Amino acid sequence: MEMSGYLIATRKEVAEFAGVSEATVSRVMNGVGPMKEETRSKVLRAAEKLGYVPSALARSFARNRSGNLGVVLPYIPKARLFSSYYFSEMLSGIGSAVREQGYDLLLLFRSEQEPQEYESFFLAQKVDALIILGSRDEPGEREAIRKLKEARHPFLVVNQHFKGESFPEVDVDHVEGSRQAVTHLIQQGCSHIGFLNGPLTYSNSADRLSGYQKALAEGDLHLDSSYLFEGNFSRRSGYEAAEKMRELLPEMDGLFVSNDRMAIGVLQKFREWQIPEEKYPKIVAYDDSDAAEITVPPLSSVRVPFYEMGMIAANKLLQIGNDAELFRTWFDEPVRELLQAELIVRASSRGNTHVNN
Amino acid sequence: MEMSGYLIATRKEVAEFAGVSEATVSRVMNGVGPMKEETRSKVLRAAEKLGYVPSALARSFARNRSGNLGVVLPYIPKARLFSSYYFSEMLSGIGSAVREQGYDLLLLFRSEQEPQEYESFFLAQKVDALIILGSRDEPGEREAIRKLKEARHPFLVVNQHFKGESFPEVDVDHVEGSRQAVTHLIQQGCSHIGFLNGPLTYSNSADRLSGYQKALAEGDLHLDSSYLFEGNFSRRSGYEAAEKMRELLPEMDGLFVSNDRMAIGVLQKFREWQIPEEKYPKIVAYDDSDAAEITVPPLSSVRVPFYEMGMIAANKLLQIGNDAELFRTWFDEPVRELLQAELIVRASSRGNTHVNN
DNA sequence: TTGTAGGCGTTATCAT
DNA sequence: ATGATAACGCCTACAA
C-alpha cells in the first residue's frame, strides 16, 4: 500500500508550470549542459513553488545505480551489536565518508542461519558497493566473497585478511601491534605471559597470536600452550577465562588480552578474588576503547584506528565509482591498506605503582 | 559510470529461457496469483540458471516504495557518534525490527549547518518511513517535524517530547526515572543533592529536572540552584563540571548525573583530587550502560530500555504500512508510547561500604 | 540552448 | 493459468 497521504510533484508538472520541456527541468536540476540563466531560474522557481524534489528512486532506476553503500554487519539477535566499540567506531568512520561523497549508507545484517551470500545485494541492485565487517575465515564466507570478486562487484573487507586470496582489504597490522604489546610486557620484566585471544577464525586473532609468538621468541621465552586462553570478545568470556587462569596465577606475571572488554571481565574476576592489585599480572589489552581509561587499574591497550579504517575503506571504495582506471585495476591489484596500531601504556602494565584508589 | 563489470540477468531473459511471459515470471517471483506447479518450477529453474534476482531498484520504482526505513542521526564530524551507548542500543533495536519486517535500514546524518529539513527524504522517496533520533527542542526542528506531520509522512520521534505538539513519539518516563533516583538518594540520607544535567533542549533533560524537583519537594528539601550543573553528556564535560562542584563538596552529600559518561568524568576528577571514596557524595547516574558496572565504585544508574525503544518504534512505524486503519489514525491520535526506566542500585549510592578494591 | 523520444525493469490491469 | 501492455519518473542521445 501507499504509505503516505500526500501527492508528490513530478517533473512533468514542473515543466508545464515553467513552460519548458521535461528534459530542461532535468538539466536544471542536475546542473548539466548549457542553459539560459533565465530558463534556469524559471525552472527553479517552479520547482520551489510546487515543492518538487526529484525522485531518488526514479533517478536510481534510470541511472542504474542505487546510490547506496552497503555495510554488512554480523547479525546476532539481541546482541547489541553496536555497543561494541569496534563496530561503533567503524560505522562512524564510514558514515562520515559516505556523507561527503553523497552516497547513502545501507545497513545489511548478515544472517547466522542462511548460508552466506553477498552477491544478491548487487544483483538486486540494493547497493553500488559493499563493505564487509566482522568477517570470519570460514568456508562459506570465503566462497561468498570469492563470488563477489569473480563477478567484479566493488567490495572491500575490513579488519580481516584471507590468506591465499587476494581480496581488496583495509586491515590493521595486528601482528606488529601484538608484538609490541608483548614485548612491552617482557621489558616490564614478565617472563610468564598469558594470552587471552579471540576465536581464530578472525584473522586478527590469528595475527595477534603470531605477534605474541614473535615477541616471545625475540625475548627468548618459550610458548607454553597452557598459557593460551580463548574467549569471544565479550566481557563475560573474559570473566570466565579468568577462572582458568586461577592456578597459573602465582606464576603468570603478564597477560595479553585481545580486547578491552575481555580484559575488563578478567579484572572483575580478579577483584572478586580479592587479589591485591600489586599481585595482578601486568596486563595489556587491545582496542583502546573508552573503557580502557576508566578501569582500575587503567588498562594499557593497543590503540586501533577503527574510525580511520572505516573512513578509508569507504573513501577508497566510493572513489572507484568516479575513476574508471581505478576500477579496472581494482581486482587485478587489489588494495591492501595496512594501518598501524599503537600501544598505549597505562597503569595496568607498569610497576607496582597502581593508584590504590 | 557503471560501477560493475558484470551483466545482470533480467526478467525478460528468464521469460524467454523458461518459455513463458514476463508477467508469469513476476508472478512466480512474487508468489502471487494461481499458477501451475510445473510453470513455477520451470521459471525458478530458469532464474536459478541465469542467476536472476529481481531488481529491488526497478521494483521500488514500479511500486513507488523505497523499502527503506530511514533513521536520522545527529551528525557531528569526528564525534564517534555510535560510540555513545544511547545510539548504539537504539540502532540495534531498530535494526532487529527492520530486518524482520523485510525493510532495509538507511542511515541519514542530520547536518548541523543546513537548516533542519526532513521532508525531502520522503519527497525524494529515499525512505518510506522515518525515525528521528537525537532530536532537540529548537524552533527549526519543531518546524521541520511539523511539516512531516502536516504532509502526513509516517515518522516517529524517539526519546524526545515536544510539548504542545502532538507528534507520534516513543519516549521514556524520565520524570519518574529521575524522581526515583533522587528519592533513593534522599532515602540514603542525602540532603544536599547536586544535579549534573544535560542541555535542556533535550526534553529528557527537562524531564529529569522535573523529576529531581519532584523528589526534592516530596522529601521536603529545597532546590538550591547553585547545585545545578550542566554538561553535554560527554565524559569531558563531566570532568569539567566536577571542577565547579569543588567548593560545594563538603556539603554536597548526593549527586544525580544525567548519564554514565558524565558521571565517569566526575569520578575521574574526584580520584584526581584524591578524595577518599568514603567522602564521595552518593552518586546515581543515568542510562545504565556497560560502563556503569565497571567503574570504581560501580555506579548506581537508571536503566533505560534503549534497545526496546528502538525496536518498538520501528515496529510501530512499519506496521502502519500494512494497516490502512492504523495509518488513518496515525496522525489524528498520535502514538505516545511511554516506557519505564528502572533504578539499578550499586555501590556508588550505598553506605560507606565501597569495596576499597 | 532547448525539445523529442526511446529506454530502464518492474508492477498491475485487462484480456484471453 | 497465462499473456499482452500501459504505466512509473527519470536520463540522455539526438534532433532542431
Automatic annotation (TrEMBL), chains A, B:
Source organism of the structure: Paenibacillus polygoni
Keywords for this protein: DNA-binding, Repressor, Transcription, Transcription regulation
UniProt keyword Oxidoreductase present: no
Matching Gene3D superfamilies: 3.40.50.2300, lambda repressor-like DNA-binding domains
The protein's name in its UniProt record: LacI family DNA-binding transcriptional regulator
PANTHER family: HTH-TYPE TRANSCRIPTIONAL REPRESSOR PURR-RELATED, LACI-RELATED TRANSCRIPTIONAL REPRESSOR
GO molecular function, one term: DNA binding
Domain HTH lacI-type: 9-63
UniProt KW Transcription keyword: yes
Pfam families on file: LacI (PF00356), Peripla_BP_3 (PF13377)
SMART domains with a match to the protein in the record: HTH_LACI (SM00354)
InterPro entries on file: HTH_LacI, LacI/GalR-like_sensor, Lambda_DNA-bd_dom_sf, Peripla_BP_I
